[in-house]
Write a structure and sequence with these properties.
alpha/beta, 2 domains, 7-stranded mixed sheet, 5-stranded antiparallel sheet, 13 helices, binds ligand PLZ
Length: 430
């Protein structure tokens, strides 16, 4: 059988260098477990980056795509549309916050949802400016990377970015940016560099994902809502990573009670099939002219069938409640670990529902990042059979994204591995 080592060598010879990978070549996966080319078994705390919220190969999802495959797998919705797309739009219109008429468009990736939300906001307002936030991640397409609030590796070497994009600070009290300071900075941007009346959209993640699992404070989001209303700016919540029950609510913004004009979603929406959506105020979603938005594969029938199954499973298996249970268990355990002597490297434990993380610091007084220790813990966990992902603009946060369907004993097993991995990495660094 082909080993990981052979595949790593073939990958580096055949695949673009810019496509980063780790060394675990998957051969099989089931719910929260994954097996690699060397026959090793892992608990999967990445879930394809918050995609497999319903686990790998959920039986209802497998049945739904098998059934759809019997009928047709692609017609292009622009050419020969199908009911399942329309029905999914109806369901997403009903599932998103906001007591107003809503509409949905389906596309394929998170970046594409973001791009289309911006196009809608521009068409609706007749303006072109965009406000995004430092540390944000919105995708790797030209506009997606421009909106992303981190230069290396996302923007470095890729030339001029689209114009009229301003980045305001995302509040992060742990690192000295209070909510008030972030708002003052936004006012300064409006006073000195961008006329708010030229701004079409403001886009923000309810919990920054790639940026470090930093939670947008409730008051901050509500204040942004007021500012958007004051200047006629379309408020876009990027729920690509936080959405679909991950935070214990269907959408992360529900924690703050903020109602955005548009929501972008992807990842967990179709449990591993490429599908994303923009849902929001009907008049904004309808602003582009017919033919102005869409795509060949947008709303692929297999992906749409998967999304219906995902929505059913979230409801039938109470995955929002389950996300909260998982999160409470994770935070309680991490907090206990952080309180132990010798664990001063854990600067903070934070999260919403099952979107949790811990931050590694060299010193709790300064909260200076410890990126090498973070990488070492991820490697130690991998050696012990747990897939962990790091994140954070300073590369010093470990995020925990188990499927929401993970059996509790596997969750315990994974938390034991995390504790042992931190111990081993701390010891090795001493
Ligand atoms: N918006 C909030 O988290 C994707 C990116 C992984 P795509 N995040 C994982 C990587 O290294 O590329 C993401 C996100 C938020 C948009 C996106 C983009 O989604 O489906 O990757 O295009």
């Amino acid at each position: 059988m082909t080993t990981n080592a052979e595949l790593i060598a073939r990958k580096s010879a055949a695949v673009a260098r810019g496509v980063g990978t780790r060394g675990i070549y998957a051969t099989r996966a089931e719910n929260a477990e994954l097996w690699d080319a060397d026959g090793r078994r892992f608990i999967d705390f990445a879930a394809g980056i918050a995609v497999n919220n319903t686990g790998h190969r959920h039986p209802k999802l497998m049945a739904a795509i098998a059934e759809q495959a019997q009928a047709f797998t692609h017609t292009c919705f622009h050419v020969a549309p199908y009911e399942s797309y329309v029905a999914l739009a109806e369901r997403l219109n009903a599932a998103t916050p906001g007591d107003f008429e809503k509409k949905t468009m389906l596309v394929t990736t998170g970046a594409e949802a973001v791009e289309n939300a911006i196009k809608m906001a521009r068409a609706y307002t007749g303006r072109s400016g965009i406000v995004a936030f430092s540390g944000a991640f919105h995708g790797r397409t030209l506009l997606g990377m421009a909106l992303t609030g981190k230069v290396a590796p996302y923007k470095k070497g890729f030339g001029a970015m689209p114009p009229e994009i301003a980045h305001a600070p995302f509040p992060n009290p742990l690192h000295g940016v209070s909510e008030e300071e972030a708002l003052r900075h936004l006012e300064r941007i409006f006073a000195s560099s961008v006329d708010p009346e030229r701004v079409a959209a403001m886009i923000i993640e309810p919990v920054q994902g790639e940026g470090g699992f930093t939670i947008a404070p409730k008051g901050f989001l509500l204040k942004l809502r007021e500012i958007c209303d004051q200047y006629g700016i379309v408020m876009i919540l990027d729920e690509v990573q936080a959405g679909m029950a991950r935070t214990g609510r269907m959408f992360g913004c529900e924690h703050a009670g903020v109602v955005p004009d548009l929501i972008t979603m992807a990842k967990g929406l179709a449990g591993g099939f490429p599908l994303s959506a923009v849902t929001g105020r009907a008049d904004i979603v309808d602003a582009p002219n017919p033919g102005g938005v869409g795509g060949t594969y947008a709303g692929n029938p297999l992906a749409v069938a998967a999304a219906h199954a995902v929505l059913d499973v979230i409801e039938d298996e109470n995955l929002c409640v389950r996300a909260d249970e998982i999160g409470e268990k994770i935070r309680a355990r991490l907090t206990t670990i952080a309180a132990r002597q010798g664990m001063e490297c854990i600067g903070e434990v934070r999260g919403l529902g099952a979107m949790n993380a811990f931050e590694l610091v060299t010193d709790r007084a300064t909260n200076a990042p410890d990126a090498p220790l973070t990488a070492a813990i991820v490697a130690e966990a991998e050696a012990r059979g747990l897939i962990l992902l790091s994140c954070g603009t300073r590369y010093n946060v470990i995020r925990l994204l188990p499927p929401l369907t993970i059996p509790m004993e596997q969750l315990d097993e994974a938390l034991n591995i995390i504790e042992a991995s931190i111990e081993a990495a701390v010891q090795a660094a001493a």
